[in-house]
Every structure is written in structure tokens, then in C-alpha cells.
């Protein structure tokens, strides 16, 4: 996990990337040569350069760079597979090529002759590469956050497209359950980036701004909690790396703690202007939507108007924040891999220390009625993540085997017989047929009673026609 993180010195919570699926080499030479000879009736040696180009392209896409160029290389091969499918894969004949791929998390090998397996695996790697690009962004600035958001949304879109369009997955990483988990994980990481952007761009420390940060943090906590539930389902529990499940749980606790911290900051650090019995409209509206529910016996307006009630409620939030921080640190300590990530430990320790210090500031010796629990904060976000589907048209490719002829005619699904020569003798009415196109010329129609009709009818009946 750590190898894919940003090299920036800025302290930010690490993200979860995926490693690429690995694959064995595939030699298309003999199968394609045989198909060209038998199906298209051509000399296969004339297409040695095309076969070599295809093999080199596949070899290159096995180790793409962690950049836009790497994504374009994978997409180029993915798009080329469309032409390969049309040219050489038919329902009545198998090309005889085996595709070997390894599970991205366990390394368990899988093998299939179906080209759909090859296409699905390449698309999986496109999504995985997006996760690596997203994880390496420097999120200390909004430009890096925006790039991370874009990368994780595209990863979610590719995983979702794979889930909806590819079935009968031979490996667990491409199963519907696993892909659903990965989509949710990517959406959660986008939501985390949204929170980070708001913390950077929120210049003021107004009451309503702090409430917004608290609700954004609660939203991040909720989506990570949902991811953790997915990861702990049967089948997934023994499949997902322990470090992933631990990281997701740590983040859920960490951002829940932050939500309570910002709630306390709003209540205790800022005064709200009042007009008689009512607080100002903006603060009142924001606070009314802030909690899932509120204890009976007091209204939110009463709390806002009473400094002591605000202090006690803020202290209750900080108490929950400290408890959540400590739970995040406890879960973190149980995972050997996470313990090695110094940046994550620094973040957890710093935020815990900040909440604890603020709690001690509000603590008083005469607080004997410290029994109230802080209400649950209503999760809310200003920007819901998008799932960006893959755009296959961004990388334009040409059919490597275009010299075989137009794909509409010279495809694997067309039934071809042995080539035959029919000699037509021109009459007064011509050859008796109409032609269209070029390389190859296609017969558009046959004139009734003409030379072509007579000759073709004889050919169909098995009459041998000698070359004049």
C-alpha cells in the first residue's frame, strides 16, 4: 500500500490503491497464421509484421507507467481487442489461445480461452492504474485533490462497468461482490478528498462553516463504515487484505472523531448573534439540520442562547471525539502494515492530541453532571461523488490487420469456402451485374437473365467452370 503513496512531505491520510493483475506472455503467431490460411485463404507470412506488432503491444501493456501514458497504452490494447475479436474469434471455431491472468490480491492464477477474459482483465488494470495515480497525488493543494478525485471517480466507473458488463468471472477480484466493494471503496476515497478540499478552501471559522466541516467528516465516516461492512461479508472477509479492512475501519473512526471535534469547535469557539429570543437565521437553520435527533427537554435555540449549555454540549462532543480517536489508534496498532506507515500514525496522534487538549480546556472541577451524551451528527456533503464510466473513444486505434480487407466482409463470423474463379464472357448487355466499392469490389446486384446469373447458377449447382 505504501509504495503507491505521494512523495510529498505534507501530512495526509494515505489512500488505498490496487496493484495490477499480472499476466503471462501470449504468442499469437501460430494460431493467427493458421486462421489466416484456413479462414481467409491467404498466405499468412504476408502478415508477420502485423502479428509482431500485436504481440509487442500486449507485451508493453503488461508493465504500463503510472501515468496518463500508461492509461492510454492499456486503452489502446483494450480497443485493439475489438478488432482482434472481429477478425479471429468466431462462435464456430476457437482460436486456441489461452489467456493467463493472476488475481490482483491473492496471485491465484486463472486461465481462459475467451477473449472476454482478456478484455475484462485489461479493463480491471485500467481501473487499478487509476487508483495508483489517485493515491500518489499531493493532496496538500486543491489541484492535487482535484486530480485524486478525478482518478478515483474514473476507477469507480471502470470497476462498475466491469461489474455490469462482464459475467462468469474466473477470479475473485473480478466477481460482482468484489467489484461492488471496490466501487464503494473508490467512492469513499473521493468523499475523503472532498472533505480535504473543503478544509483547505474554508478560510473563515464561522459557526456555520464549522458545522459544515463536522457534517462532511460524518459523511466520510459513514461511507467508510459501509465499505467496512462490505469487506467483512462472507467470502470477502477472508479475501480482502487485513491491512485494507484495518485502514477502512481506522478512517471510519478517525473521521467520526473529526466530526465531533468540529461540532465542539462550532459550539465553543464562536458566538452567535441574537435578536431577542431567536438566533440569526443562518445559524438557526444550520443547527436545526445538524443532529439526527436531540434529547427531549431542550430546544436547539435554547442551547445556542446559553453559553454554559453550549460549553457542556461541546465538551460532550469532544469526549466522543477523544474516544473515537483512541479507537482509531487501537485498530491501527493491531495491523503490522499500518504500524509501518509513519504518516498515518502522525495524523492519528496529532488529531487525538488536538481534541484532548481542547477537552481539557473546557473541563472544570465543578462539572459533576457529566452524564450527557453528544447527539449523533447528521452526515451531509456539499458534493456527492460521481462514478465516471470509462471513455473508450479517447484513444483512437487503427485495426492492425486492416490489410485483410474491410471488417464488414472479412471477419471471423463470415463463412468462407475455398476460393473459386468464375469467368464471365461479356455480352451486349455487359457482364450482367453491378459492382460497388474498392479493395475488394462487391457485387451489389445480378441482372436477371444476364451472363452473371447463368454462370452463378451453374456454379451453385456444382457445374465446373473452366477458365477461358
TrEMBL record:
InterPro entries named in the record: BRO1_dom (IPR004328), BRO1_sf (IPR038499), PDZ_sf (IPR036034), RHPN1_2 (IPR047138)
Gene3D superfamilies named among the record's database cross-references: 2.30.42.10, alix/aip1 like domains (1.25.40.280)
Highest taxon of source: Eukaryota
Domain BRO1: 14-407
SMART domains (UniProt xref): BRO1
GO BP terms in the entry: negative regulation of stress fiber assembly
PANTHER family reported for this sequence: RHOPHILIN, RHOPHILIN-1
Name the UniProt record assigns to this protein: Rhophilin Rho GTPase binding protein 1
